[in-house]
Amino acid sequence: MAIEYLGLHSVNGPFVVLEGVQGASFDEVVEITMDNGADRLLGRVVEINEDKAVVQVFEKTENLSLQNTHTRFTGHPMEIGLSESLLGRTFNGIGEPIDNLGEIVAEKKADVNGKPLNPVRREYPRNYIRTGVSAIDGLTTLIRGQKLPIFSGNGLPHDQLAAQIVRQASLGDNSEEKFAIVFAAMGVKYDVAEYFKSTFEESGVSDHVVMFLNLANDPVVERLITPKVALTVAEYLAFEKSMHILVILTDMTSFAEAMREVSSSKGEIPSRKGYPGYLYSELATIYERAGIVEGVDGSVTQIPILTMPNDDITHPIPDLTGYITEGQIVLDRELNGKSVYPPINVLPSLSRLMKDGIGEGYTRADHADAANQLFASYAKVGDARALASVIGEDELSPLDKKYLEFGKAFEARFVGQGQEENRTIRETLDIGWELLHMLPREELDRVNTKVLDQYYPAGEKA
Questions:
Q1: Do β-strands 52-57 and 15-18 pair in parallel, antiparallel, or remain unpaired?
Q2: pLDDT at residue 9 in the model
């Protein structure tokens, strides 16, 4: 039952405090009507202490009156209306339409905080999602139901990579299963938001994308809700409409910064780098809303994108993210300086579930061997470059010189590709084998002999 109160005890930034409250619940949605009777603000209960309730408001609180403000407790947590008509629509950070196409006619409403998946009912992720990006598909393959973050840095082209993945992602060439993308941007500038919108519209993929945009000038508190709203929509489409959903969340650093700001306003004791002690559990609450449920055809796959402050991979945000997720894709500033796009450094990048979603019946029989050999050979490129920096390139052995040539070609042809270039898994693997032909056959010691005979016959020379 909804209960309404008149007046506020105090206002502190995005928080308002009410006294004499009875029957309030944690995370309950609150509607605040300003003294002019026209403007309404939305909030949620974040703390209850005896008869006091602290409400976190999603909009600016400067003009709230302590005497004449009406506060209505709705009796339910924050919910979003769900239906398949969400596809092709654009919303703000709390799920309100901003595309001038009217309200959504909802089939049902669901709590944005979601329900935890029963671990016993989780299925092990299989099958891959093709992104059309060779460095991802070939060496850090994205598996359905996986959570695979992209670790980037300020100024690196993670926005372009995110847009390219949205444009190109699919379940493979011959799949007839239903596929859609939920895209959530937190704390992005207006021009970045317009870039995403125009890119999706021009490429014709908007009809299977649900977009949530929280802009940099939107309330900070809204950023804490945006990923939860997006994942609620993803779970509905996946587990109730049997669709395979790819969720892209950018930028999780903005989400964590918002947590730190709100925590500081509440006067909580800070932990590492000023972030609240519950940063890990909040990130886990979001990331663990990915997976496959037994008996359901759909799946939720996540690509969270985060910018590492000062390119520090040991910073709390990437550090904790790495503990929770199943690998990472790392963007490299040095490769970006060489004009390699996307600047993915394959050596620290990893997909822990890759081995179970590639090979015969999934991608191609030689995928695992080719990926292992490309990774091992590129690792030796680093050794050759380090040696060349000491003794000079002219003094290197013929084999080391071949590795230097291989490294340049690998970065230019395999890692590097155009922003509009959508490669099939077959094209990616064929490019990999062409590059491996630059090295002597005896150097390819990570490949099964039968596979090697098929793709590098014994009579051929490097």
A1: antiparallel
A2: 87
